[in-house]
Amino acid sequence: MKQLFTLFILIVLSINSQAQNGTKNDVILQLNGDELTGKVTEINDDAIKFVYAGETLPYSIKKADILKITYASGRIEIFNKPQLSSSTQKNQTTSGSTAGSGLLSDHHNKIAILPFGFIKDGQKAADELSNVVQNACFAFLSKHAGVLSVVDTRTTNAKLIKAGITRQNIEGFTMDDICNAIGVEFIIDGTVVLNKASQSSLASNSYSDKSKGNRNEQKSSGYATASATNYENYETTINLDIYNDKGNNMFSQSRKSFFKTQDAYQNALEYVLKRSPLYSK
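^ thats the sequence. predicted structure below, dont judge the formating
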């Protein structure tokens, strides 16, 4: 009886622990790119009260240091919009003052491709994968841009860094901000969502006969081998948006790939690009 009671207590504690682990948290994104995960308990005029996940000690964080809070409910609250770097602001001011005089080889007919978001099995993938898809998009579109000019990805990423725009704080900038920072008329923004769907295996058998051609022998000196190769099947979805330098969304489309490999995004990406207003045969 005592053992049953002990087992019951352990089961209750395990269930309670799992319930706590499954609790969603609030996420604070600061202007410096840091993410704080826990619970927002209070919001005052100039600060918020915050408790880290798994802790009880409350902290006070200045609103001036916060870009946004993503609450456990899914609601997003923006507190501050990041400022463009001084060099970018100067370039924008210069562009604005000379655009009317016609002396500026401005943003007209120029396209920039942002690093793609890459979500694998619900988690953000490494920056390298984002850049791989960005480069694949550039390689394809640069051959089919017609009169438009596609800015190479290295230049795009360098200008983003100089403007202080990172993957962590990019949501704090509007698309016209980003167009002006890079110096283009159009921005391509995309996401790859890759989820493991299933696993399959392919079996193969082989037989080797070492009887040296004597078919009358009753005993064979051959041997048989068998092997199996496992394959991971994935579901891949491409989400693609195109914005102009006024911040308007010109094109938005999603495409799920028919193929089940990890690089199936390439086919879906080309399919969507061919249907975009920037594509030219």
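The helical segments are 2-21, 86-99, 127-141, 153-162, 175-182, 265-274.
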